[in-house]
Amino acid sequence: MGTTYKFQAHSVTDQHTEEPTINYQSSQTGTSQYKNVNGKESVSTGGVTRATTRSKEAGVMYHGISISPDEIDSFIEEVEGEKAEAEAEAEQAEQELEPEGFSNSTNMILDDLDAGDLANAINQAVDGNLTDENIINAVKSLGFSDKESALEVGSNLVDSFKEYFGNIAATQGIDPETSWEALLTWNKAEAGKAIHDWVNARGVDSSRLKDALDESPNKYGRYENQGLIEVLQESGYEVRKSPAGGLIIRGNNYKDWTTWTEFRKQYKKQ
Hints:
This protein has 270 residues and is α+β, with helices and mostly antiparallel strands. It contains 10 helices and 10 strands. It has helices at residues 69-95, 104-112, 115-126, 132-138, 147-171, 176-186, 188-200, 207-220, 226-234, 260-269, and strands at 5-13, 21-28, 32-37, 40-45, 48-52, 60-62, 65-67, 238-241, 247-251, 254-259.
């Protein structure tokens, strides 16, 4: 028993009939109560009042509005539906407040990390040496009491970076793994600077990284790069060596031989 709703008849019409019309109004004094008085039932739960009566025409007062008993349920459902819709819109608006770059949750972790540990982890990733132990060391400033928890949080952060990186790589027309390898093959020092800038800007400014990802595949697309050739061949392309030592590609949607540079440009438009 909590909130109490009291129903009081405020008018009676059609008194000459066997079932006169009785109009009720309610007042709230407390959370739930059930009443049955001469066949007039009322139930209030969590602030929502539902009422029935033997008199089919008796109005039910809901938030100051007199509603037919036959319509009260649908009316309340409509009100509650509008409330749920408003809550959904509010939640969507809150999600739209996420920054353009990394998510708020990712930024919160980055802000709590020691700047030196974060920078060292980026360097290790560029060097291809981001081991589990190095990941744990990267997040040690968060104060974990055991390595398992530290590794879990650190690995989740790394996965987030991979996802963000993959989104940028997709705009350049190459899959994330190939983009990463091309970036490091192109110029490891410049790659490191681009990634440091990107992370320090919390992903909001990715211009330097995009420029690096756009430039690096040109050097990467050489005939000596058997790994890239194998990937292209597995995707159904024919690959040959161009007179300049680069790649020319044909197959799938490309009926004529196409240079690696032109292939990438067309791929990005797809």
